[in-house]
Specification:
51 residues, two-stranded parallel ribbon, DUF1214, DUF1214 domain-containing protein, elongated, DUF1214_C_sf, 1 helix
């Protein structure tokens, strides 16, 4: 996934637009959740930059 005001060339299908100079927040939707989600023993990692 790529996040930013402009899509990287050739990566448009894996890009989410953000607004330059504005903060943004991700929301995740989960399907088929297990007990670990509900009892909070599972925690999603932060989004990390990959190089």
């Amino acid at each position: 996934m790529y996040f930013g005001p402009k899509a990287p060339a050739g990566k448009e299908k894996n890009w989410l637009q953000t607004i330059k100079g504005k903060h943004w927040f991700t929301y995740m939707r989960f399907y088929g959740t297990t007990e670990a989600y509900f009892n909070k023993s599972w925690k999603m990692d932060d989004i990390k930059e990959m190089k």
